[in-house]
UniProtKB/TrEMBL annotation:
<dbReference type="GO" id="GO:0016491">
    <property type="term" value="F:oxidoreductase activity"/>
</dbReference>
<dbReference type="InterPro" id="IPR002347">
    <property type="entry name" value="SDR_fam"/>
</dbReference>
<dbReference type="Pfam" id="PF13561">
    <property type="entry name" value="adh_short_C2"/>
</dbReference>
<dbReference type="InterPro" id="IPR036291">
    <property type="entry name" value="NAD(P)-bd_dom_sf"/>
</dbReference>
<protein>
    <submittedName>
        <fullName>SDR family oxidoreductase</fullName>
    </submittedName>
</protein>
<comment type="similarity">
    <text>Belongs to the short-chain dehydrogenases/reductases (SDR) family.</text>
</comment>
<keyword id="KW-0560">Oxidoreductase</keyword>
C-alpha cells in the first residue's frame, strides 16, 4: 500500500469497530499516525491499536463520550500532545435511534442522546480541531443516504442529524478554504456492522438500493481514503455517495 499519508496525523472518532476501525486501518496503512476514540470497550479499542501496531504503524485510542461536547477540546489537546499536530479529522462517531414522530411511546431521551452525539458532538469536534488543523488539512464527515432522502417512516430524527452535519461540514469548507483545508461528506450506506439491525427496516432499505446488498466497511473507507489523500486537494464542499445508489 502506498504511504501517501506519511508524516500526517489523523483522528477518527468512533474508531474501535465497523467503518471507524476500517478507516483507522486504511489511514495507518497509508502511513498516517492515527488517533481514534471509543466510548465503552477498552478491550475492543486495544485490539485495533494492536492490529495497527502489528503492521508497523502508530495508533492511540482515547475514551470519549461524544454526547458531552466539553470533551471535544480535551480530545484535540490529547491528540496534539501525542503526535504534535493534526492534519486529518474523520467524524465517524454516531448512533442510530428510530421512531415515528407521532409515536406516544418513543424514547425521547434516547433521541436526545442521538442528537447530542450525531450532531452537537460533531460540531464540537470540528470547532476544536479547526483551531489546530495544519494548513492543507482535511475534514471528512460520515453521513448517510438518509441525510439527503428519508425514504421510510420512523427515520426523521436520525435523518435530521445527518442532514445537519452535512450542511455544517460544507459551511466549514467555506470558512477554512483560505487555509486550503478541505471539508467533505461521505454518505455511507448500509454496512455489515449491525447499525440497521431491524430486519424490516433493513429489507425496506435494501429494496431501495441500486446495488441491493449491504456494503463492506472497507468499501466506504476507500472513499474516505481518497478524500484524505493528496489527489483530493481541489475537492471541498462535496458530498460523496458511497451507499449503493440509495439516491439514484
Amino acid at each position: 500500500m502506498s504511504k501517501a499519508l506519511a508524516g500526517k496525523v489523523a483522528l477518527v472518532t468512533g474508531g474501535s469497530r465497523g467503518l471507524g476501525a476500517a478507516t483507522v486501518r486504511l489511514l495507518a496503512g497509508q502511513g498516517a499516525d492515527v488517533a481514534f476514540t471509543y466510548v465503552s470497550s477498552a478491550a475492543l479499542a486495544q485490539s485495533v491499536v494492536d492490529e495497527v501496531q502489528a503492521l508497523g504503524a502508530k495508533a492511540v485510542a482515547f475514551q470519549v463520550d461524544h454526547a458531552d461536547t466539553s470533551q471535544a477540546p480535551v480530545l484535540i489537546d490529547q491528540v496534539v500532545a501525542a503526535y504534535g499536530g493534526l492534519d486529518i479529522l474523520v467524524n465517524n462517531a454516531a448512533i442510530g435511534v428510530y421512531g415515528r414522530v407521532d409515536d406516544p411511546e418513543v424514547d425521547t431521551a434516547a433521541l436526545d442522546r442521538m442528537h447530542a452525539i450525531n450532531y452537537l458532538g460533531v460540531i464540537a469536534v470540528i470547532r476544536a480541531a479547526a483551531k489546530v488543523l495544519r494548513d492543507n488539512g482535511r475534514i471528512i464527515t460520515i453521513s448517510s443516504g438518509l441525510g439527503t432522502r428519508v425514504g421510510l417512516p420512523g427515520l426523521a430524527d436520525y435523518s435530521a442529524t445527518k442532514a445537519g452535519i452535512e450542511r455544517y461540514t460544507l459551511g466549514a469548507a467555506r470558512d477554512l478554504g483560505p487555509r486550503n483545508i478541505t471539508a467533505n461528506v461521505v454518505e455511507a450506506g448500509l454496512m455489515e456492522t449491525g447499525m440497521a439491525a431491524d430486519p424490516a427496516v433493513l429489507k425496506a432499505l435494501l429494496a431501495g438500493l441500486s446495488i441491493q446488498r449491504v456494503g463492506h466497511p472497507d468499501e466506504i473507507a476507500a472513499a474516505i481514503g481518497f478524500l484524505a489523500g493528496p489527489t483530493a486537494t481541489y475537492v471541498t464542499g462535496a458530498v460523496l455517495d458511497a451507499h449503493g445508489g440509495y439516491n439514484a
